[in-house]
Design brief:
Number of helices: 11
Helix content: 40-55%
Number of domains: 1
CATH topology: Rossmann fold
CATH superfamily: P-loop containing nucleotide triphosphate hydrolases
Strand order of the largest sheet: 2-3-1-4-5
Structural class: alpha/beta
CATH class: Alpha Beta
CATH architecture: 3-Layer(aba) Sandwich
Strand content: 5-15%
Length: about 210
């Protein structure tokens, strides 16, 4: 199965809602960072990709019809070239809201994996930290202005590279209509799956209390 949809939007831009929506629409299973917890061996593959090594994308995405969130969104260019028939969705949100959501969820975990009760997940988070915080953020996530520039640059590069007929710039608060029109699929009768708000993220991860600063 080749990827039909590639999510280029960064984590915490509604990517878990997008995953659920694509699966509900019948696009196929959607690869998301959560997949790394089920397949921790994939972390090494993504780190090799970040180092510029060749990756067997077909093997990695075997059984998936879509991919979004990190790490896939960090390789949107490679994936959009490899799967040239796939459509690309750039999920976006207010940049400062995005930063605060990142800071209080995935970044908190990446900076302190001991918050997770399951030690087996911690190696995955360390790999994610190298990809997202050290790689995409250049080790400067706490520099708000620098991180917001990286967010804006990422969105601009996607829109400058992917042809307009192949790209949807999308906020998940828009619901089904623009997504289904873009994918040429009927609108479901079920509500759009707005999921993974900040409190839900923490509950799903079963986080330990944060350490005092």
């Amino acid at each position: 199965m080749a990827l039909r949809v590639i999510g280029a939007g960064l984590s915490r831009t509604g990517t878990f809602s997008l995953k659920r929506a694509l699966e509900q629409l019948g696009v196929g299973r959607c690869y998301h960072m959560h997949e790394l917890f089920a397949h921790p061996e994939h972390a090494a593959v993504w780190e090799r990709a970040a180092a510029g090594d060749a990756v067997d994308w077909e093997r990695l995405f075997d059984g998936y019809g879509a991919a979004c969130d990190a790490p896939p969104c960090l390789f949107w260019r490679e994936l959009s070239e490899r799967y040239s028939d796939a459509k690309v969705i750039l999920t976006v949100r207010d940049p400062r809201d995005w930063y605060e959501s990142m800071r209080s969820t995935v970044v908190e975990l990446m900076q302190d994996p001991s918050l997770l009760p399951d030690p087996s997940m911690r190696d995955v988070l360390l790999a994610s930290r190298r990809l997202v915080l050290d790689g995409f953020c250049g080790g400067r996530f706490d520099d708000i202005d620098a991180t917001l520039r990286r967010y804006a640059d990422h969105c601009a590069r996607v829109q400058a590279t992917i042809s307009a007929d192949r790209l949807l710039v999308y906020e998940v608060v828009q619901g089904w209509a623009p997504l289904c029109a873009f994918l040429e699929l009927p609108v479901p009768n079920e509500p759009f799956p707005h999921t993974n708000q900040r409190d839900a993220f923490r509950a799903r991860a079963n986080l330990r209390p944060s350490r005092p600063s």
